[in-house]
């Protein structure tokens, strides 16, 4: 029975459709004082780059995905973490095949509207980079206008204080259950909010990105935000996104050495372009 299930899963993963991916290049070291020698990719904001994801190249093995072409792995495995993961043993994470980490730098409270720092951020950034992982950050936004979005960006930049990042600074806005804070915002308003945040991040020398699932992304005019990379959250066997993306968060129940309990696992697909 177990063998049959594995065979079925492989068939499902290998027999899927293609998705066009168009972005502004690939990830590079981000920030005003980055170490150019550590940059694994070119700057995401460089000339527009287009490619095609062929999901017959997506392989599943023990809860881990790789994107392989002619036997060469074109993807990188990552995780995204916050204080919810508790104390992280970063050397163990690195030894378990994880190459990058997206770290929560802070959030705006949906009830009070106050901005707060993720209490594990500094420890996680130092630990991840110290263990040899590439790092990016994300901010959980509940901004209701452009002014609040710029306030959030200023907070992020203050917390980073010029620190070098190898991955982007992601804007993560979601409707919180039981909260009406952002649920009534129009498509035009959400687009302006995301742009305001990302423009501030880019002006400081970092690479901005927008995170979300299909529902979250539908709140934006993505054509108006085409200059920013996308990080898609979707937990199907293959991504179901109707838009282009660079990072894919494919599970929220992953298991990684060095972390107790579940953790989000991500795939960086820019190497497949």
Q: Can you describe what's shown?
A:
With 273 residues, the protein is of the alpha/beta class. It has six helices and 14 strands. An eight-stranded mixed β-barrel has the order 6-7-9-10-11-12-13-14. Helix 4 links the parallel strand 9 and strand 10.
Topology record:
Blueprint: H1 2-14, E1 18-23, E2 49-54, E3 58-61, E4 64-69, E5 72-73, E6 76-81, H2 90-95, E7 100-108, E8 115-117, H3 121-130, E9 134-141, H4 146-160, E10 169-173, H5 187-203, E11 208-212, H6 214-217, E12 229-233, E13 247-254, E14 263-268
Parallel strand pairs: 6-7, 7-9, 9-10, 10-11, 11-12, 12-13
Antiparallel strand pairs: 1-2, 3-4, 4-5, 6-14, 7-8, 13-14
Task: Give a quick precis of the structure.
This protein is an alpha/beta fold and 273 residues long.
Strand fraction: 25-35%
The name of the CATH architecture is Alpha-Beta Barrel
- Got a strand count? 14
In what order do the strands lie side by side in the largest sheet? 6-7-9-10-11-12-13-14
What count of domains describes the coordinates?
Answer: 1
Helix content: 10-25%
Q: What is the CATH class?
A: Alpha Beta
Task: Give the tags.
globular, disordered N terminus, three-stranded antiparallel sheet, 14 strands, TIM Barrel, 24% helix, alpha/beta, eight-stranded mixed barrel, 273 residues, single chain
């Amino acid at each position: 029975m177990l063998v049959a299930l594995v065979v079925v899963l492989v068939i499902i993963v290998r027999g899927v459709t293609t998705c066009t991916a168009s972005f502004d290049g690939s990830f590079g070291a981000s920030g005003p004082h980055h170490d150019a020698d550590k940059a694994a990719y070119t700057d995401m904001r460089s000339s527009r780059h287009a490619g095609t994801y062929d999901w017959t190249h997506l392989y599943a093995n023990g809860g881990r995905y790789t994107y392989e072409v002619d036997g060469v792995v074109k993807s990188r495995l990552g995780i995204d973490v916050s204080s919810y993961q508790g104390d992280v043993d970063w050397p163990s994470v690195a030894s378990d095949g994880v190459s990058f980490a997206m770290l929560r730098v802070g959030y705006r409270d949906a009830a009070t509207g106050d901005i707060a720092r993720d209490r594990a951020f500094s420890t996680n950034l130092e630990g991840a980079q110290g263990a040899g992982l590439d790092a990016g950050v994300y901010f959980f936004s509940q901004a209701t206008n452009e002014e609040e979005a710029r306030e959030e960006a200023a907070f992020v930049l203050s917390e980073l204080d010029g620190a070098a990042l190898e991955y982007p600074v992601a804007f993560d806005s979601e409707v919180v259950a039981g909260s009406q804070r952002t649920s009534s915002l129009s498509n035009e308003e959400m687009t302006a909010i995301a742009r305001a945040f990302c423009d501030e991040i880019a002006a400081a020398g970092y690479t901005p990105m927008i995170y979300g699932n299909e529902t979250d992304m539908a709140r934006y005019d993505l054509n108006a935000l085409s200059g920013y990379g996308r990080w898609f959250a979707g937990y199907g066997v293959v991504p179901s996104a109707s838009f282009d993306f660079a990072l894919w968060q494919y599970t929220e129940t992953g298991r990684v050495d060095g972390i107790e309990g579940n953790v989000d696992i991500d795939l960086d697909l820019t190497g497949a372009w």
